[in-house]
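Structure first, sequence second, as always.
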């Protein structure tokens, strides 16, 4: 059975910054056809749950209290990449808009709810190593093949 890296919050694990989850039925249903490997790069990088929300500002990740948490985000991204490579995963389904997992659109660093083009720290690292990253709204793309 093919293995997929999945944001744990999409599977119902309460690991988000607010201590909640964002279960997604379409993602959970993938467990019927794939082996799902849940990850929370932020927790894997040593951040607690709950925790202050963070956003990317330039090359740094800062929480709403002004604390630089870039090292935590990078450590969690590296741990996720190691897992993906060890398990032979070529695809990840990650939580959209997240400073870790967002792919294509993330919050702009102003904590105003404004979205901008970009990738979260983990999504960018996985992509840089040839791992396809999809958001939860892109499940239908999972079966499509070809270059991206």
């Amino acid at each position: 059975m093919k293995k997929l890296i999945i944001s744990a919050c999409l599977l119902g694990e309460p690991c988000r910054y607010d201590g909640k989850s964002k279960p997604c039925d379409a993602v959970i249903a993938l467990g019927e056809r794939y082996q799902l490997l849940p990850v929370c790069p932020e927790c894997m990088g040593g951040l607690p749950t709950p925790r202050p929300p963070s956003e990317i500002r330039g090359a740094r990740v800062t929480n709403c209290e002004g604390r630089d948490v870039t090292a935590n985000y990078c450590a969690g991204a590296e741990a996720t990449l190691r897992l993906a490579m060890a398990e032979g995963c070529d695809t990840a389904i990650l939580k959209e808009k997240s400073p870790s997992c967002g792919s294509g659109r993330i919050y702009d660093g102003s904590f105003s709810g404004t979205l901008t083009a970009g990738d979260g720290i983990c999504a960018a690292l996985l992509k840089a190593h040839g791992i396809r990253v999809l958001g939860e709204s892109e499940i239908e793309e999972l079966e499509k093949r070809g270059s991206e």
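Margin note: The beta strands are 3-7, 35-39, 54-57, 60-63, 91-94, 105-107, 115-117, 132-135.
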